[in-house]
Amino acid sequence: MSEKKVLILFAHPAFQKSRANRHLVDAVQNLDGVTFRDLYELYPDFNIQVAKEQQLLLDHDVIVFQHPFYWYSSPALLKEWQDLVLEHGFAYGKDGTALKDKWLLTMITTGGGEEAYRHEGYNHFTIPELLQPFEQTAWLCKMLYLPPFVVHGVNNLSDDEMGQCAKEYQNVITGLRDGQLTSEQWQGKGYINDIVAGGGSHA
Ligand SMILES: Cc1cc2nc3c(=O)[nH]c(=O)nc-3n(C[C@H](O)[C@H](O)[C@H](O)COP(=O)(O)O)c2cc1C
Fold first, then answer.
1. 76-85 and 50-59 helices, crossing angle to 10°
2. Angle of the 20-28 helix axis to the 159-178 helix axis, nearest 10
3. Atom of ligand 1 lying closest to residue 19 CA
4. Which residues pair with 26 in a beta bridge?
5. Which pTM was predicted?
6. Which residue from 31, 169, 119 is spatially nearest to 161, judged by alpha carbons?
7. Distance (Å, rounded) from C-alpha 85 to C-alpha 112?
C-alpha cells in the first residue's frame, strides 16, 4: 500500500521530439500512487487552471517538477505555473500553509555533461547552485526540498544507459512513495541519484 501520493508535473514544450524524457516518463507515468500531468499537453495556451492545480497539490504529498534544463532553469510553462498557482495565502504568507511539510523534488535532464557543472567547468556553477530558486521557493512554501535527480549529457547516452537512468528515476519515485527513501539518506547528497545508483557522489 502506498504511503505517499506523488504528483509529477512534467514540462517539455517539444515532447514529441524528446528522447531522454520519453524514457523517464515511460518509467513513472503509470505507477500506482503516482499522478502524472503533462503541463504542455494540458495547457498549450498557458491558460492554467489555478484552482484545479491547487487542489492537486493539496491531494498529494510529494511534488515532482520534471523537465529538460532550459537556460539553466525550467521551460516557461512551469515558471508560469509557479507564478499563478503558488499564490499568497495558499502557498506562502501567514495563512499560506497548504504546502507545509510536502516534499519537492526536481528531476532534470541536461545537454551539458556533469563536468560542465563544476566551478572550473564550462557552466561555472553546480546544479544545486543553479536550482537555488527552486530550493528557496520550497523553503518559502514550508516544503521539504530534496536533492535533485539529474541526468547529464543526455545526447551522449546510449538507449541502454538512458534505460538505466529511467530505472533509477523509477526507484526514486517508488522509494519516496513507499517511505523507503528518507531524509536521513538524502541529507548532504548533491543529487538524489547517488542513493539509488550506488555510483560516485556529486558535490
Ligand atoms: C531552449 C533550450 C535551452 C537549453 N538550455 C540548456 C541549459 O541551460 N543547460 C543544458 O545543459 N542543456 C540545455 N539544453 C539542452 C536540453 O536540456 C536537452 O536537449 C534536453 O534535456 C534533452 O531532453 P529530451 O531528449 O527529453 O528533449 C537546452 C535546450 C533547449 C532547446
1. 80
2. 40
3. 25
4. none
5. 0.96
6. 169
7. 30
Q: What are 13's three cell numbers? A: 514544450
pLDDT in tens, 19-69: 999 999 999 999 999 999 999 999 999 999 999 999 999 999 999 999 999
Residue 197 has pLDDT above 80, yes or no: no
The structural domains of the chain, ordered by start, are 6-197 (3.40.50.360)
Lowest mean pLDDT among 56-65, 103-112, 179-188: 179-188
Query: Which three-class secondary structure state does DSSP give residue 156?
Result: helix
Residue 68 Cα to ligand 1 middle (Å): 5
The distance from CA 119 to its chain's CA centroid, rounded to whole angstroms, is: 23
- What single string gives the DSSP state of each residue in 106-140? EEEE-SS-GGGSSTTSTT-S-HHHHTHHHHHHHHH
C-beta 2 within 6 A of ligand 1: no
- CA 86 vs. chain centroid, Å, equals 16
- Residue closest by Cα to atom 6 of ligand 1: 70
Q: Quick check: CB of 66 below 6 Å from ligand 1?
A: no
Location of C-alpha cell 560516485: 200
Closest CA to 176 of 34, 25, 24, 4: 4
Q: Which ligand 1 atom lies nearest to the CA of residue 152?
A: 11
